[in-house]
Amino acid sequence: MVTPAVRMFRRVEGLFCVYKPSGLHWKLVRDNIETNLLKGINAAPSQPCPQEIRFLAHPGSDTEAPKGLTLSVASVPVLSKHPLVTGPKFDRIQVGVGHRLDAFSSGVLVLAVGNGNKYLNDLYKTRITRDYTLEGEFGTATDDFSHMGRVVERSTYDHITQDKLNKVLAMLQGANQKALLMYSNVDMRSQEAYEMAVMGLLGPEGKSQPILTGLRCIRFQPPNFTLEVQCLNETQKFLRKVVHEIGLELRSNAVCKGVRRTRDGPFTLQDALTHHHWTVSDVMQAIKQYNSSMKKKKYSKSQTKTSGLQPVEENTPARQQNETNEGAVGAGGIK
Q1: Stretch 130-150: mean pLDDT, rounded?
Q2: Three-state SS for 280?
Q3: pTM of this prediction?
Q4: How many angstroms separate the Cα of 95 from the Cα of each of 6, 98, 110, 254?
Q5: Cis omega (within 30 of 0) for bond into 88
Q6: What is the spatial distance between Cα 321 and Cα 318, in angstroms, rounded to a whole number?
Q7: Residue 158 to residue 141: CA distance in whole angstroms
Q8: Are 138 and 247 in contact (CB under 8 A)?
Q9: Is residue 82 scored above 80 in pLDDT?
Q10: Which residue, 190, 237, 322, 335, is most buried by CB atoms nearer than 10 A?
């Protein structure tokens, strides 16, 4: 018989995302969520303890009938099946982590529960991109490219303007676009490459060097600035190094003050569960919303393909009139 705990576990299996705060390791986030899920699932109402029939000695039978024994039939609980004896239904639950964030980064962190780990692997085989927001500061260089590292150099930044910054960003984006084409195992002169580029599927096969597919400045208030980045196969250390290289290109220095992931494939900040919502009920709701959104996308794609395959039957009366005229000309000849 399926217990309420098992039914709840089946509804928890799937993909969802949380918001990882800065200064917290991703393993602690996963362990915290795993503990909360186990507590919530095991707190589900348990099945009543099964009963068994036993023959018990009648109270007072020894004094009343010393030469005989009086037994009575009674239904008693099976103590070996009692929850206090068997313990919790689940003592371990498999929680997988998608693209990880280091301890000093924050933002969207995708997690999978149970069979959702299989869907997680399939998701990252589709070359999905991720969006980041990078906070930078001109004038300082450190050994690890972050504002918490050891300062190795200081420089001026008064000569930097937003136009100069935009030119450097455009140059970096152009170089990465060439790398994107180089790592794509497709002939750039073929129709296949054109169709893949139109659908946004052009990209590296498997693992490759980190590639920036988009880069722009969304805030410029020297010495502080904010960049919006879209990338593939990146690490947070690589993104901090990008900020450092931008400072060098501008004849100055720059450090990264913060890395925040705003999108990981189909998951955005609006879908991320904050720390107070890392409960089994909120996780179940998040997984349900993700599954329903995926079903809607698949349905819309199937509808689009079906409508594209159907022949267009426009101007049917005009077509029939032309066919009638052609038949009349063929029968009577040209006079």
Answers
A1: 96
A2: helix
A3: 0.79
A4: 16, 10, 10, 38
A5: no
A6: 5
A7: 16
A8: yes
A9: no
A10: 237
Angle at 205 between CA 228 and CA 259, to 5 degrees: 25
Return the SS3 of 143.
coil
Establish whether 102 is a catalytic residue.
yes
Please tell me which residue, 229 or 124, carries the higher pLDDT value. Answer: 229
In contact, 39 and 284? CB cutoff 8 Å: no
Q: How far apart are alpha carbons 214 and 216 in whole angstroms?
A: 7
**Contact 54/324 with Cβ under 8 angstroms?**
no
Structure tokens at 91: 């003592």
121-126 own/partner pairs: CB under 8 Å, 24+ apart: 123/15, 123/98, 123/265, 123/266, 124/98, 124/99, 124/265, 126/265
pLDDT at 326 exceeding the cut of 80:
no
Is the separation of the CB atoms in 253 and 141 below 8 Å?
yes
Nearest one of 78, 84, 86, 90 to 37, comparing CA atoms = 90
Query: Do 264 and 98 touch, CB atoms closer than 8 A?
Result: yes
| Spatial distance between the Cα atoms of 184 and 285, rounded to a whole number of angstroms | 38
Maximum CA extent, the chain? 133
End-to-end CA separation in angstroms for the chain: 89
In this predicted model, what pLDDT tens digit does every residue of 175-216 receive, in sequence order?
Answer: 888 877 777 777 767 777 777 666 666 667 667 789 998 999
Q: Which member of 31, 62, 91, 102 is catalytic?
A: 102
The full 3-state SS of 66-83, as one line of letters, equals CCCCCEEEEEEECHHHCH
Residue 37 has pLDDT above 70, yes or no: yes
Higher pLDDT, 134 or 121: 134
Neighbours of 102 (CB within 10 A): 14
In the block, residue with structure tokens 């002169």: 189
Q: What's the distance, CA 103 to chain centroid?
A: 18
pLDDT of residue 72: 81
Find the DSSP H helices in the chain: 4-12, 26-42, 61-64, 83-86, 116-123, 162-183, 191-199, 236-249, 280-309, 316-332
Q: How far apart are CA 132 and CA 228, in angstroms?
A: 6
Q: How far apart are alpha carbons 322 and 52 in whole angstroms? A: 87
